[in-house]
Amino acid sequence: MSVMSVKKLTAEHIEDIHRIDLESFAHPWSQDTLKTLLGSDNACCFGYFEDDVMVGYVALEWVLDEGSITNLAVLRSHRRRGIAEELVQKALDFSRETGLVSVTLEVRVSNHPAVSLYRKLSFAEVGKRPGYYSAPVEDALLMTHFISK
Ligand SMILES: CC(C)(COP(=O)(O)OP(=O)(O)OC[C@H]1O[C@@H](n2cnc3c(N)ncnc32)[C@H](O)[C@@H]1OP(=O)(O)O)[C@@H](O)C(=O)NCCC(=O)NCCS
What we know:
Layout: E1 4-8, H1 14-24, H2 31-39, E2 43-50, E3 53-63, E4 66-74, H3 83-98, E5 102-108, H4 112-120, E6 124-133, E7 138-146
Parallel strand pairs: 4-5
Antiparallel strand pairs: 1-2, 2-3, 3-4, 5-7, 6-7
Helix pairs in contact: 1-2
Bound molecules: coenzyme A.
């Protein structure tokens, strides 16, 4: 039987994140960007592991008491198993423990799987950024989860 776990990520997981990004995004973050993120005092990433193999991750960054989910991806072969939901819930739990009051994110308006996931986890649509994304050009929906005390 597989053993599942969610762990805080460190610089040793850069390759794992990059592997998941490559199959999830048209413009994956560079390894330098990932290194900066993982070394930041204002960021935290969590990975979902199946038998010690990372199959998904979420990146959370914050300024003062406002957080942002800046990336979320799950390997194609592992989608629709509740992994992203568990990762975002972990990021929200961490946000509450850290004293953040809200967590915001941008998502392509056409990204129905992600928008559905965020709605399910009580993210509300608070705005739109016209033409925010390139290749293809598309609006971003701005969604916020307000942390209850
Ligand atoms: C979006 C993404 C992270 C979802 O990961 P996942 O592990 O498959 O999602 P989960 O299994 O946890 O799904 C939780 C909820 O999300 C929604 N959801 C996920 N995939 C969906 C799909 N293909 N269609 C419709 N709703 C979907 C559903 O509400 C689902 O709840 P349900 O199972 O009760 O219906 C994944 O599709 C992915 O990595 N996509 C590419 C990268 C990306 O777009 N990241 C988001 C950037 S903002």
